[in-house]
């Protein structure tokens, strides 16, 4: 089997905290040089590469001389602000030695949830790539409160992959890939060499958070692969310590775990809807409405809504759930939560009498709806 990276023109590479900082002992400059050197070679082959690099917090902790990772958010944010300096300084000087410019891009969930900012981020990244600059992306940890946090850079890597419609996402970590169980705990676990991104069996194999400095563990990588597959991107999870790993993958060698995308890519607007991590509310459908959406591709009418949860305004993204509470779709609502409560279960012809006006007959129009299950 050839590597899914072989024909990739646009690639997102994510390196985790455990690798960048050699388990918390400060930045591993030699390792950074090796990856950056390979990225420079990939750009010389005419490929576009975006680097999502973790390590700000771990490097900040090392620079501040702290013995262990603090629990307080403000201390973690302070550490990130200190460590991010070291991270970009290191990459900037290494890329410069390869005659390449690097650019720092710090994002939060809120930036990607807002359609205008999302489109701005996309155009900026595309412009940077067009200028042969290597964007280096991290979460904007110093401003991110719980509500706007992405949480981990595996998720950020997948969101960026979808944002720029990359062909593949390469997640470099401290293990050789996904094993059938956590190799730290189950020594005879075996490497999964190829699988279908989104296969629920993979989620079972990946336990909780892994190393002491990383945040996500393997589960967030598997979910990232599932997310990236929605835009048609394949994911490789492999060891960042493997010699020339990026170049060998690009030459077609299958290394680590290849998680292949099999579904047809969502269009860009539905992709953006699907990539929202936090939603303000949800609407609960009766079984007939679930069937109308799923099987007949219909818009969501108020008549099929049994309940409205949370508070949201017109134009916000809400979850569409079945009676078991499983999210089957999500979309942009035409009515606020309080309006939706007043028209739930009613035919569209009764909207005007209930609200005093009618904007649209649908609660969520089909064009603003993405099916998830
Ligand atoms: N099924 C699995 N296969 C491989 N690693 C796993 C698995 N389940 C849990 N892990 C753990 O996930 C860790 C990698 O996650 P993490 O420390 O967050 O890395 P990173 O900093 O690269 O994001 C591994 O060191 C490993 O202990
Ligand atoms: N933004 C954080 C990264 C957090 C993170 O997701 O780390 P990891 O699980 O190692 O990819 C930092 O730079 O420290």
Automatic annotation (TrEMBL):
Enzyme Commission (EC) number: 2.7.2.11
Span of domain PUA: 281-364
A molecular function GO annotation: ATP binding
Primary location class: cytoplasm
Gene3D superfamilies referenced in this protein's UniProt entry, alphabetically: Acetylglutamate kinase-like (3.40.1160.10), PUA domain (2.30.130.10)
Pathway assigned in UniProt: Amino-acid biosynthesis; L-proline biosynthesis; L-glutamate 5-semialdehyde from L-glutamate: step 1/2
Residue sites binding substrate per the record: 54, 141, 153
Protein family according to the UniProt entry: Belongs to the glutamate 5-kinase family.
Catalytic reactions of this protein: L-glutamate + ATP = L-glutamyl 5-phosphate + ADP
Binding site for ATP: 14, 173-174, 215-221
Listed NCBIfam families: proB
GO CC, one annotated term: cytosol
Task performed by this protein: Catalyzes the transfer of a phosphate group to glutamate to form L-glutamate 5-phosphate.
Keywords: Amino-acid biosynthesis, ATP-binding, Cytoplasm, Kinase, Nucleotide-binding, Proline biosynthesis, Transferase
Pfam families hit by this protein: AA_kinase, PUA
Protein name (record): Glutamate 5-kinase
Residue ranges that the Swiss-Prot or TrEMBL entry lists as coiled coil: none
GO BP term, pick one: L-proline biosynthetic process
Superkingdom assignment: Bacteria
Record HAMAP family: ProB
Subcellular location: Cytoplasm
Enzyme class, spelled out: transferase
């Amino acid at each position: 089997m050839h590597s899914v990276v072989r024909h990739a023109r646009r690639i997102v590479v994510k390196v985790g905290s455990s690798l960048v900082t050699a388990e918390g002992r400060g930045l591993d400059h030699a390792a950074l040089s090796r990856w950056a050197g390979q990225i420079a070679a990939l750009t010389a082959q005419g490929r576009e590469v975006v680097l999502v690099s973790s390590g700000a917090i771990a490097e900040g902790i090392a620079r501040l001389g702290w013995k262990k990772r603090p629990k307080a958010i403000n201390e973690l944010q302070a550490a990130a602000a200190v460590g991010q300096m070291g991270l970009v300084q290191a990459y900037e000087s290494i890329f410069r030695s390869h005659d390449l410019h690097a650019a720092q891009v710090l994002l939060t969930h809120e930036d990607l949830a807002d359609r205008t900012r999302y489109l701005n981020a996309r155009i900026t990244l595309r412009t940077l790539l067009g200028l042969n600059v290597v964007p280096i992306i991290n979460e904007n940890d110093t401003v991110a409160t719980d509500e706007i946090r992405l949480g981990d850079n595996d998720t950020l890597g997948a969101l960026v992959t979808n944002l720029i419609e990359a062909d593949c996402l390469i997640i470099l970590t401290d293990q050789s890939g996904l094993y059938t169980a956590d190799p730290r705990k189950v020594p005879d676990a075996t490497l999964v060499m190829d699988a279908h991104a989104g296969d629920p069996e993979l989620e079972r194999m990946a336990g909780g958070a892994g190393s002491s400095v990383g945040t996500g563990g393997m589960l967030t990588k598997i979910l990232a692969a599932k997310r990236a597959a929605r835009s048609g991107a394949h994911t490789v999870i492999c060891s960042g310590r493997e010699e020339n790993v990026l170049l060998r993958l690009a030459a077609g060698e299958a290394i680590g775990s290849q998680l292949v995308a099999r579904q047809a890519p969502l269009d860009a607007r539905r992709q953006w809807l699907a990539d929202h991590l936090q939603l303000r509310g949800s609407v609960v459908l009766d079984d007939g409405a679930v069937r109308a959406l799923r099987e007949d591709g219909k818009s969501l009418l108020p008549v099929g809504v049994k309940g409205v949860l949370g508070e949201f305004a017109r134009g916000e993204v809400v979850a569409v759930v079945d009676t078991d509470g499983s999210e089957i779709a999500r979309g942009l609502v035409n009515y606020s939560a309080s309006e939706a409560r007043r028209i739930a279960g009613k035919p569209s012809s009764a909207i005007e009498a209930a609200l005093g006006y009618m904007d649209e007959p649908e609660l969520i129009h089909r064009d603003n709806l993405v099916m998830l299950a």
